[in-house]
Design brief:
By secondary structure, the chain is an all-alpha fold. Helices cover about 85% and strands about 0% of the residues.
Length: about 100
Amino acid sequence: MNLLVSIILTLVYALVLAYCARNVLFVLSGTARNYAEWSQGLGGFLYLVAVVVHHVHPGTGISWVAGSIGFALVVLPDVLHWLAPRLYQRLTENC
């Protein structure tokens, strides 16, 4: 049972990293059109930096802070889509 949970968590972790990398590539390629995509791109970058710092220097507090802020920026547009649709609409207007 523990092996199955470990495998599932590893897959979820890999999917989050891939999603963050995808958002960073949108910003780097210049295809980010609105504030929501910029937020997700910046958040993805911070989260990926936090993962790298955590693996290079485990136990540092900066990786937790950067990871938390990055993850919040990545999920913020999706959360606003459900909780504040009018604010989400303003975030998704073209810059």
